[in-house]
Amino acid sequence: MDDRDKTVLVTGGCGFIGSALVPQLLKQGYTVRVLDNMSVGSAEDLSDYAVEIMVGDIRDKEAVSKAVAGADGVVHLAAQTGVIDSINAPEVDFEINAAGVLNMLLACREYKVPRFVFASSNAPIGENEPPVDETKPARPLSPYGASKLAGEGYCSAFNGSYGVGTVVLRFANAYGPRSTHKGSVVAKFLKDAASTGKLTIYGDGMQTRDFVHTTDLCGALIAALQSDVGGETFQIATGIETTVLDLAQMVQREFPDIEIVHEGQRAGEIIKNYSNIEKAQTILKWDPQVTLADGLAETIHWFQTEYNK
Fold this sequence. Notes:
Layout: E1 7-11, H1 18-27, E2 31-36, E3 52-55, H2 61-68, E4 73-76, H3 83-88, H4 90-110, E5 115-121, H5 143-162, E6 165-171, E7 173-175, H6 185-195, E8 198-202, E9 208-209, E10 211-213, H7 214-226, E11 232-236, E12 242-243, H8 244-254, E13 259-263, H9 278-284, H10 292-307
Parallel strand pairs: 1-2, 1-4, 2-3, 4-5, 5-6, 6-11, 7-10, 8-13
Antiparallel strand pairs: 9-12
Helix pairs in contact: 1-7, 2-4, 4-5, 6-8, 6-10
């Protein structure tokens, strides 16, 4: 996939990360095709780019087959991404995050697609002593974590059994522009700051996360797409631990009138989490570039612009 005259299929390409990735792939010289069911994103987000957009769902085998045919590589971003949503409807979470990945891999096997990059998360690892790395045992706490772990397992199996060059990227807490639909903590804080004037922390706020900007995620996805490794998993993060309370206070400094409030701890959520990224740095030659202060400032500016339209 290091040849730039190749076609890359991006599932979920109209979503949060996909709409940031597509322009970067085009800059690299790739032809880009998108498969998206438009449940979150919109084709308008890519209207400025020469991209083939196919409306379809990864649960639909026929739609998947049509999208994969002729592709030289796949970046699989389409997913159900909410922990709480997965607890409320685990069967739907499974159909999208586990069965959907299997559908994609079956099509890649059929059409002999050599490269499949799967966007996973730290949720499969669950509650492990941080920093987490690729050797930690998987102990998912939520159906979301379990379904992502199933997807990771299928990636490993299709590499071992059929020679599909799979790469799993375990994203830390992603944030950045175009994230109004996200339920992750940065997006939620910024939406709440605009709509309610309050930042709600579940628990004491001492739970920790590793916040990674979409610019860096896109860099990791492209590095994985262009690599020659197969059957490997990588932690994609900053390696920096930040408490949710510290994040809330960073947001509060930008909006001095908002209030920080606390509610009870939610089930299924990891308490402490940040990553060791040495494997990605060594093998993928990837390093995060965006600091939390800079990335948060950019994201706040984007949210303010959106809410002021």
